[in-house]
Amino acid sequence: MGLRVLHPTDFSEASEVAFVHALKLALVTQGQLHILHVDPNGTPVQWQGFPGIREALERWGALPPGSPREAVTDLGIDVEKVYAYGRDPVMATADFLQRRPADVIVLATHQRDGLAGWRQPSVAEAIARNVGEVTLFVPAGRSGFVSTTTGDFHLRRILVPVDAVPAAQPAIDAAAAMAALAEPGAVTLRIVHVGDGSFPDHDIPKESAGKWERRALSGDVVTALGQAMQEWGPDLVVMTTEGRHGFMDGLRGSTTERVLRHAPCPVLAVPSR
What we know:
Elements: E1 4-8, H1 13-29, E2 32-39, H2 53-60, H3 70-74, E3 78-85, H4 89-99, E4 104-109, H5 114-119, H6 123-131, E5 135-139, E6 157-162, H7 169-179, E7 188-194, E8 211-217, H8 221-232, E9 236-241, H9 246-252, H10 255-260, E10 267-271
Parallel strand pairs: 1-2, 1-4, 2-3, 4-5, 6-7, 6-9, 7-8, 9-10
Antiparallel strand pairs: 5-10
Helix pairs in contact: 4-6
């Protein structure tokens, strides 16, 4: 069974880039894609505002020009566009997931930090934090690892930051699963641990599709990971997350959220459970 993918959209340019990642994940796994728009004003449904599924697939060469709607289903994917009314997009998304569970949520996010991040918290981060699902964040202004024009999958380097807490294994497994979607042997997965002592316990999945390597770093976690991302240039960062702890995390955000705000690429956040 393919992935069940949920893509909440606000019809923005940033959401368009996140949309192609959601569509590609559904396409390569022959899964389901739900595109959800939450309207706080209850305005009449504007279906033309939703991203064009057939247009994208035709642009990618997956469908011939002028294909009928049923041609999408013939590719092995199930797509549904959902228009919902709700004052709170976080709660509306959580409510939708109660009725239609997803394996992964794909969200566009605006990278904010410092006081601006406190005053204008990211809706994308709030959705992920409240629904507790695997979430792929696609930062606004970044092209990501799926080409909007061709649909090509540019996934060559995956960075996996790990620590003893939260457990490393969920991120390791998720990174291996993402690597399996790319060309065989094309992906290098770099496990990074910041701090003293040995690497946290983890197992590399058998028959993994990529090449694994490890790096030990020192210093502040967020700063060290930021430097590692800038120097190595990953196409994707995969991290285990367990949310926020205490007052300071409430102001600054979790480690995953703070890494996300400086990431030059999409970030896959995997709940520790």
